[in-house]
Write a structure and sequence with these properties.
- There is one protein chain.
- By secondary structure, the protein is α+β, with helices and mostly antiparallel strands.
- The chain folds into two domains: 3-227, Cytochrome Bc1 Complex, Chain A, domain 1; 248-419, Metalloenzyme, LuxS/M16 peptidase-like (Cytochrome Bc1 Complex, Chain A, domain 1, 2-Layer Sandwich).
- It is 44% helix and 23% strand.
- It is built from 15 helices and 13 strands.
- The protein has helices spanning 41-51, 62-71, 109-121, 132-151, 153-165, 179-183, 187-200, 214-227, 272-283, 289-297, 326-341, 347-362, 368-381, 387-396, 399-408, and strands spanning 3-9, 15-21, 26-36, 76-84, 87-97, 125-126, 129-130, 202-209, 248-254, 259-266, 303-309, 314-321, 410-419.
- The strands form three sheets. Strands 1-2-8-3-5-4 form a six-stranded mixed beta sheet, with helices on both faces.
- Helix 1 crosses helix 4, helix 3 packs parallel to helix 8 and helix 12 runs antiparallel to helix 14.
- It is globular, with a radius of gyration of 23 Å.
- The model has no long low-confidence stretch (mean pLDDT 94).
């Protein structure tokens, strides 16, 4: 694949990633603001990052901003906030047509970048604060998002389990906060949090595509430098979560029909790619041991999957099941993990998992945002492997390395969400 990846640091301490791939007809700018998860600050950061794409000083209304974006062949602005290990990732992005694809070769990359810059650094303020109207809209959106977690029981169970699996660690907290925390946010507080985020967050700027001039990157870096000319916040992404001396068992009752079971296993040593292959072999694909044995052969649950929490040395297995199957399902999940640790899998099973993962990795080449996410994670690992290079690493992994990975994971927490006793199941 013809992907060219480079990374360097601006004199202000901002990390700059450049990704060039001539097959794309669009360009991409992504700005990541990274800060430790904090019970008070994170909900405000989530609200702030969504608010920034509503308007700016040059386009004070959403309608005016949409018109400006449409005039540039439909620039797409995006924002999101999510949890990655112990950090909150706040992202603002712009996707726009490459200059050599416009009518008559019109240059729009600098104009699109200016709109993004203006949204971030020159938001529309009223009396020194964000717009009251858009503040209310985005605040309601965040409240709706929190309520949707409560209503989606698999997601709710996972969040509740996280709070116990990682108790005392930043990852245990939701970046959205609680309903009460979000409702209590005031406009002046949010405006102050916005300035704090721009001043203190670690910043990575990704420039992706074919023809974005260096001046665009310089413009964005200089804008951040006005808030903090010497930014230095190291990201300690890989901090394994300590395993509990004794497995923690806890349950919660709600008006539910289908029970949720979340089991966590932790390992003090990590081999990133061996752990990834092991987790997929255990429960990350339709031919995995959990899917074939626990769900299909024994019919113990409606779903059963495993995933690795990279950076925390933690393996999560979650399933949806009937109450009478809880104990048996727990035992069978442990049995399947022991089977992998004992080498009870065929070379064909292992090869199929590697092929599946390589196919998924190579799909990152199809989208600039995906290839950006790929290289950003590589940067956090201290490497710069392409998807093809990682596929070579996967192919070289031995049975013994997968077995050693499985042996390292020990039971940490078991969380069960079950129906109310004697109550009506809904």
């Amino acid at each position: 694949m013809s992907v060219n990846f480079t990374q360097n640091f601006h004199e202000s301490g901002i990390n700059v990633i450049r990704i060039r791939d001539d097959k794309f007809k669009s360009n991409y700018i992504c700005i990541r603001l990274v800060t430790p998860i904090d019970a008070k600050k994170s909900p405000r950061n989530s609200l702030t990052i969504d608010l920034l794409t509503m308007s700016n000083s040059a386009c004070p209304t959403r309608e005016q901003l949409e018109e400006s974006l449409a005039d540039l062949y439909g620039v797409s602005l995006g924002s999101c906030s999510y949890r990655m290990a112990d950090y909150q990732m706040c992202e603002l992005s712009a996707v726009f047509l490459a200059d050599d694809c416009t009518i008559g070769g019109e240059v729009i990359s600098d104009k699109a970048a200016e709109i993004l810059r203006c949204c971030i650094f020159e938001p529309h303020f009223e009396n020194g604060c964000f717009s009251e109207k858009y503040f209310r809209i985005r605040k309601q959106s965040q409240l709706d998002a929190i309520r949707s977690i409560i209503n989606e029981k698999r997601q709710y169970a996972m969040q509740r389990a996280f709070s116990e699996i990682f108790r005392g660690e930043p990852i245990a907290l939701s970046t959205l906060g609680t309903i009460e925390e979000t409702e209590s946010i005031t406009l002046p507080e949010l405006t102050e949090s916005y300035r704090d985020l721009l001043k203190n967050a670690a910043v990575t700027i990704t420039i992706g595509g074919t023809d974005i001039p260096d001046s665009v990157c310089d413009m964005l870096c200089e804008s951040f430098a006005k808030f903090n000319p010497h930014r230095d916040m190291p990201i300690d992404y890989y901090r394994s979560s300590p395993c509990k001396a004794e497995t923690l068992y806890l349950s919660e009752q709600l008006d539910v029909r289908q029970c949720k079971l979340v089991m966590a296993f932790k390992s003090p040593k990590t081999n990133i790619y061996a752990d990834k292959v092991m987790s997929v072999l255990l429960g990350g694909c339709p031919t995995s041991k959990l899917h074939i044995n626990v769900r299909e052969k024994l019919s113990l649950c409606y779903y059963c999957s495993a995933r690795l929490i990279e950076g925390k040395g933690t393996l999560i297995v979650d399933s949806g099941l009937d109450k009478e199957n809880i104990k048996t399902t727990q035992e069978e999940i442990l049995r399947q993990l022991d089977a992998v640790a004992s080498g009870d899998f065929t070379d064909e099973e292992l090869e199929n998992v590697k092929l599946l993962m390589c196919s998924a990795f190579r799909s990152n080449y199809d989208n600039l945002a995906d290839i950006d996410d790929w290289y950003y994670l590589q940067m956090l690992r201290g490497t710069s492997y392409s998807p093809d290079e990682v596929c070579d690493i996967l192919r070289a992994l031995t049975r013994e390395e997968i077995i050693e990975s499985a042996k390292g994971f020990k039971p940490d927490t078991v969380y069960v969400l079950e129906p109310l006793q004697g109550g009506e199941k809904q």
